[in-house]
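Need the bound structure for zinc ion, inputs here:
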Amino acid sequence: MKIAIRMDDITPDMDWGKFNRFKDLLDAHRITPLIGVVPKNKDEKLSINPAREDFWNYIRQLRDRGWIIAMHGYKHLYTTKDPGLFPIGGKSEFAGLPFERQDEMIRKAKRIFRTNGIETDIFMAPSHSFDRNTLTALKKNGFNRITDGFGTEPFRALDFVFYPIAVKRSDSLKDTGDGIVTFVYHANTMDDKDFDKLKELLESGKVVSYSEFFTRQVQDRNTFGQVKQYALAKAKYLAVQLRKLKG
Ligand SMILES: [Zn+2]
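Answer from helper R.:
Posting the output first, comments after.
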């Protein structure tokens, strides 16, 4: 199985030392990831360094070097405790809010991206949490793809293409099949051990650039698949495997 890399919580005031340490490892292996950029970060937990003034210019540079950009929520503030359709987080910026409110948030978020020269139709929900209103609002605002869900290939469901994420990394690493899955990273909270593991992973040769997903055939997922996904998410949530995915 091939592994694609996703970096969450990209903000002007993130931990740039850790971001650069992560980026250096990727660069050394010529791997480009998906990054979740927060349009207007208000989450104090993500604010570690003084804000970088040329942030958007830098994001455009990364894009021009093949990095894929997803819109990671709006302000990254958890406003509800609704886990939404993909119940692994238990808190949400969106799920549970009325459609009009969600539509407004997504519209404003997208406007910030556009003002700063970034176009994307990929959405990354804070804490993996969204509901049907989120999906309707995303569609209305031109989003077609979501980084979430379980599986070993991109799949179509609820009128979106989903790029699956790994829940149990050891299982994905043991899988000798031809599939592809995403490993989720929050560089802000990584320690030396986490960086060692990342280095080891990159050296294993299993990692591919995120754009590999776009060359794959998108599977149609039937109702059974969605029920299975829900059950799996619920089980994994209870198993606390997802601690690392949160945020
Ligand atoms: Zn996040």
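Comments: The two ends are 25 Å apart (CA to CA). Helices lie at 16-28, 55-64, 99-115, 132-140, 169-174, 192-203, 223-238.
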